[in-house]
Amino acid sequence: MTIKKITFLFLFLSFIFLHSAYPQKYNDVDKIVLKYPKRFNSTEDLAKRIQKDFTSEEDKARAIYSWIAFNVKYDYASFLNPPRTQGFSYSTEAEKQRKIQQLNDKLVQKAFTAQKAVCEGFTALYQHLAGLTGLKCEIIKGDSKTRLDDIGRKDTSSNHAWNIVLIGKKWILVDVTWGQGYYDSSKRRMVNDFAPIYFDTDPDYFFQKHFPDSGTYLGQKLSKDDFLNGPLIYNITIEGDHKIMEPNSGLIEVKNGENVTFRIKNISKTDQFFYLNKKNQPVRIDNAKERKGSLEFQVTFDKNIGQFITFYLGESSIVSFKVIMK
């Protein structure tokens, strides 16, 4: 793949799902679920199959994730032209709750039978199947960070949804919508590309790309500023545990000719590591030194660097920053 093509995909994909290896402990679960029928007569039948094949809460939760990600596609047409919000009237609280449940059941069945959904459908189906297999699960609504322009924007919006599911005494994070694939703008269609990393994602990484409407997670307050102003990370960042050690912000305010120090975890001097300049030409990092399991290096910011700077490991984007010239 040429550098020009890499750049085109990076700039226009809403989110990029690249995976190098499945987490080892889930390999067997995914392999079994891959052999399941693509369609079941009912959600109850699917839940019974999962309960038959898996006994642990973790494996059942993973099996639900895998089956939905393998078989339900993102409904991009509905995303572009969402249906009108369906209202209803009620006279008692019981009637209100009953009608809300009816709407939710309809959402679940549509996702299950049509095998197309947006994030609301994915999360509702995941919660429904989790309940059928004896798992406690909740839906969380919030904001997502997927584009260059998301770096440093002023406020959050409620544009996404994901799940948390209780495994033993621990709540884990699940985003099956992002687990099923990505939108390829060059082909103008969704591409199914299973991403295992959005099951039990490390919260430190998860909340760099998600921010709940409540502003909290399990009672702990999250930093809205860190979410809005942090750098943009990608799937490969999470898979390779490439934590961004320096700088702390995704907004790089510099004067022309100023040097900025970067430090990224789990990258070595022998890796093919570079960034693209304003002309989309690769600039290899050649002043790097390895320090405590990370790569430390400096970049001189001048007129050759554009509004954003993105670092690549091979052909995969690792992290992007917004450049603000003083």
TrEMBL record:
Pfam families: Transglut_core (PF01841)
Protein known as: Transglutaminase
Protein species of origin: Flavobacterium cupreum
A Gene Ontology term for the protein's cellular component: cytoplasm
Alphabetical list of Gene3D superfamilies matching this protein: 3.10.620.30
InterPro entries, per database record: CAP/Cytokinesis_protein, Papain-like_cys_pep_sf, Transglutaminase-like
Residues of the Transglutaminase-like domain: 111-178
